[in-house]
Design brief:
By secondary structure, the chain is α+β, with helices and mostly antiparallel strands. The protein has six helices and ten strands, in the order αβαββααββαβββββα. Helices cover 36% and strands 18% of the residues. A hairpin with a 5-residue loop joins β2 and β3.
Amino acid sequence: MRRWRGLSSLALALAVSACADNPEHLNTVYLDRFANPNPTLAEFTVCHGFGCTERSRASLNNGQWRRVAAVFSPRAATAQAEREQIARGVALIETMVGPQTGTSARQWTHQDNIILPNLGDATQLDCVDDAVNTWTYLTLMERAKLFRFHRVANLSNAGSLSDPFMRNTAVLQEVNGGYYAIDASLVDGGAPPRILPLQTWLNTLPPNLPAAAPARARG
């Protein structure tokens, strides 16, 4: 619990310090600490255990990557359609990574819009884990030139004294356009993550977020 409180305090400090000159709260704090800046299919890092207290190596073989690439065929004609493909691609990679890292049976950890403590369970993921991992998966897809309308941005965070739901997310930027949060912590593992305008994510909790959901193993 103490570690979780520490992470919440850090998220709050980042949110407060970023507001003045960085309205999107874009930052590299967790990427610098936990992410491999140059992930490859042969080896990349996966965070789990809450706050990236555990880091495991994972990889994707050629057959697995062909399945990911197939999600983007045919190529999307609009940015919105491509975001839907990206969400499905992230979910698919999660199902491939889970058996390698022991996180296949990840349970939902929300109750009343709060992420519950994981009580030392290394198989569980919080928003820090999901944000870093999603950035890694997006980076793999971007470098494989699967994106036409988007690029991968830095992570973003939200939370304040008036908004106690501390949260972190991976971010996409539409080419010559706005930013979008792609938040895998809002859904169960292996489900396409929510993608919504970043300012919406920063300002309010996403609509229709259930208070709790039953555990569901990833495929």
